[in-house]
Structures are given as C-alpha cells and as structure tokens.
Design goal:
By secondary structure, this protein is of the alpha/beta class. Helices cover 38% and strands 14% of the residues. α9 crosses α11, α9 packs across α12 and α9 packs across α13. The protein is globular. The mean pLDDT is 90.
C-alpha cells in the first residue's frame, strides 16, 4: 500500500525493493477513482490504464515509471476528445500528444484521463464548465467554492500529479484550496504545443502535486527546447540539486499585499516567515508600489487576448456548428451563441471593446503600460530579495478581489511562482506562495520543501467517499 504522503522517489524506492509494484499502485489509483469521483467529478474522461510492468518490460529507471497522472482537458492527447470543458469542442479529437504529455509518457508516466476546468481554463474553479462543477475533496458538504479537476484529482489521491493551465493564478489558487503544491514555471520554459491557450501572453503550463519534490521531478522531465514551439528557451537553466545555504537567502514580504489579505492568509504568511527564519533565512517586510491597478490590467489583457484567441471557434474551422442556420452570418452567430457559455462570451465582448478603435487607448494600451510597470516593480524587488512571500488565495468575500492580483502578478511578469500548504484552519487547508526571479525554480522548490506544513490526508472528510 502506498501512502498519500509518499513522494515519487519514495514510491520508486519501494518498487525497487519489491514492496510494491507499478500494478498495485495503479490498482490503488483506479480504486480511489471508482470510489470517489462520482461525487467529486474531477474527470471529464477516464481512460482505463494498463499496468506498465505487466509484460515485464517496464523500465523502472525512468523518472516517472508507473506514476498515475492526468491532464486538464485543454491538453491534447491522441485519440481522446479535447473539449476544453466547452460544448464548442465537444467532438474535437486531436491526432497527437501535447509535447509536455509526450515527455511524461516517455518517462513512464501512466495516463488516466482528462480533467475538468472552467471553459477554456479561464479563471479558478469549474463553475463555468459544460460538465458541471468539481468539488473540493476536503468539502464533505459541497458548500465551498468549486475547484479545478487538476487540484481535486491529486487531493483525492486518484493521481500523484496533474497538469493544468495558469493564466491569472487559477491552478495555484485551486491547489492552495486543496492543500497541494503547484508550480507556475518561468515563461517560457515549458512547451505549449498541443495546449489550447486562451490568454497566450499570460497562460502557462503548471503542475499540481502533493509536495515540492514531486513538482520538481515532473518539471525537470518537461522542460527544454521544442521544435513545435519556438518560444521555448533553448537552455531553460535547470540547475542541479545542491545544499542550500539559508543564511544567504533573503525573503521579502510586500506590505501592501499582506495588508490586503484577510486574517487567515496573513497568519499563514507570517507563520511561514517564522519557519524560514528558523531555517536561517532573513525575512523582511518592504514597501512595494501599490499594484491594485494590476488586477484591472490583468483582466483587460485576459479579455482582449481571449477575444482574439477564441475567434477561431466559429463553427467552420473547429468544433460545434449550428446546422439549422440559413446563411453564413446566422451560422456564425448561432454557433457561438450556443457553443460558448455566458462567462466566456462576456470576456469576448469586453475584449472586443478593449481592442476596438474607441477602447484601445483607454483600456488595452493603459493595461500594457501597467504591465510594464509591474515587471519593473518586481525586477526592482527581486534585485534586493531572492524571492517574495505572498498570499495566494482569499479566504473571505471582502478580499476576493485581491486574489486575482496576487495570482496574476507572476503571470504578467513571466516569473516562477510556487504555492504550497501553510497549515490548516478549521479543517481547511491554507496556502501561501513564493515568487522568484526568472529561472529560480530550484530555490522555490527548496524553500517550500523546507517550510511547508504537512497535511494530514486522513482528515479528508469521509463524505467524499474516502
């Protein structure tokens, strides 16, 4: 039996010592799926996986051999519908794998299926999915906010890690709500070939797992140049593991970000800061220019890019088509009216206005200037500190508007951001995040591994099927 707290390295050690087999690990994953997912509804499509070691030819030296994983339904998997949780793409079946999926499979990962999200992965949760909401596994009564399938599938033990997209912090926020670790790496270190992106300049491939070690192991497998994506860096700067001298590490806490958070998130940040200090690091609060406008900048850019990127879904080139329209214009209008949900249509309409002659200078151009200022502010802060410790999610309605600010800043600046558990409050996981310099993922993984609070997975409510 494999414990939910076991890392991938621990699992591989048990395999080599013959304590478990890849088949028994897979059986455990399948059992948890069958017993839990009817209520959680993390999956949009389940693929009955086969034991990678059944024929005796499994290569146990592969980095991810035998490890069950799943991907958000915005990733291409050959022969499997790629719906993006939308009616518009309900019948689209790609004939190839996304590059990141291909690399995981080459390293022995066991694919189990596609996961739910909001339509086209826009914003946290899954309220706006054609498949319905995905429930947080910690929420026995189904009263909390919905989460993405990527976070729910890992938290419920159906897989050991999952891939999702992150454009304004979606994956990190959902992971924090489920007591998980999630990384949004430096842009652009991971290929987006085969990933449906609605916000190209801000949307990244992210990883959700239970601990920083697993996130790091999966990230190392996926990084690197891709002939199908010219934006990926030739040298992603993956540094070897090394012993960290914590006396040389300085962590900054932006005061304006901290003060905007509710008491629960503030306590989580300060408790994490205390643990960093106990490890030998220096932690300082500092004043960062008020970035409240960054929230609006992120929203304007998200809408503008979504209106452009989603224009291809018109009933001609991709997906659903209204067959009853009498002319081309009516077909376009009815197809998009019926194929897209209200949230997506709202963003397309707003984005079209932001990019129009009347709105370009007032909205889009201003948002682009604000983005430049955000990049400069973070560059200045990170010239003084090795990384920044910040809230990642809002625990109350009054601070909800700031969550997009905390999540989107790293995306706007193209910086790596890592979310990890910072404790439990009233049987509910609470997370924080670290934002680092470009290519500083190794530092973020080491820091999170040093101070993260352990989650008692046995406390997941029995009402979820556990």
């Amino acid at each position: 039996m494999v414990a939910l707290t076991d890392t991938i390295q621990t699992i591989h050690k048990k395999m080599k010592e013959k304590e478990i087999t890849a088949g028994s690990l897979l059986e455990q994953s399948v059992f948890r799926h069958r017993s839990m997912d009817a209520k959680i509804r993390a999956y949009t499509a389940w693929v009955e996986p086969s034991d990678p070691g059944a024929d005796g030819k499994g290569d146990e030296d592969l980095d991810l051999f035998g490890i069950p994983f799943a991907v958000q339904d915005t990733f291409a998997v050959q022969g499997l519908p790629m719906t993006c949780s939308s009616k518009m793409l309900q019948n689209y079946v790609p004939g190839y794998h996304a590059t990141v999926v291909e690399r995981i499979l080459q390293q022995g990962g066991v694919f189990t299926g596609k996961l739910n999200s909001n339509e086209f992965g826009l914003l946290p949760g899954s309220d706006h999915s054609v498949f319905g909401k995905t429930q947080n596994p910690w929420d026995a009564d189904g009263k909390w906010k919905s989460v993405s399938g990527a976070a729910a599938a890992v938290a419920s033990g159906q897989v050991w890690f999952a891939l999702g997209t992150d454009s304004v912090g979606e994956l990190r926020m959902d992971a924090a709500a489920c007591g998980l670790t999630a990384i949004k790496p430096t842009f652009p270190t991971l290929s987006r070939h085969g990933v449906a992106t609605a916000v190209p300049s801000m949307e990244h491939v992210g990883i959700a797992a239970r601990n920083p070690q697993d996130c790091q192991q999966v990230w190392r497998v996926m990084v690197g140049q891709d002939p199908f994506d010219s934006t990926v860096l030739d040298d992603p700067g993956v540094l070897p593991d090394r012993e960290m001298d914590w006396k040389e590490v300085c962590v900054g806490i932006p005061v304006s970000f901290l003060e905007a958070a509710d008491g629960i998130s503030q306590d989580a940040v300060m408790q994490t800061a205390e643990k960093l200090v106990e490890s030998g690091a220096r932690v300082e609060k500092f004043e960062m220019p008020d970035l409240d406008d960054a929230r609006m900048a992120a929203y304007v850019l998200l809408c503008a890019e979504a209106s452009s990127a989603l224009a291809r879904y018109d009933g001609v080139r991709y997906g659903y088509r209204n067959r009853e329209a009498g002319d081309v214009l009516s077909m376009y209008l009815k197809t998009r009216q019926e194929g897209l949900n209200g949230q997506t249509k709202e963003k397309i309409l707003l984005g079209t206005h932001f990019l129009s002659t009347q709105g370009y200078e007032s909205f889009y151009s201003q948002a682009a200037r604000l983005r430049t200022r955000i990049i400069q502010h973070f560059a200045h802060a990170l010239s003084r500190f090795d990384c920044l410790l910040m809230p990642v999610e809002a625990s109350s309605e009054s601070t909800q508007k700031y969550a997009a600010l905390w999540g989107a800043c790293a995306n706007l600046a193209g910086l790596p951001a890592l979310t990890f558990p910072a404790g439990m409050v009233e049987s509910r996981p609470v997370g924080v995040q670290l934002v680092g310099r470009a290519m500083s993922e190794s530092l973020l993984f080491a820091a999170a591994d040093k101070v993260r609070m352990e989650i008692d997975w046995d406390r997941i409510p029995s009402g979820t099927g556990r």
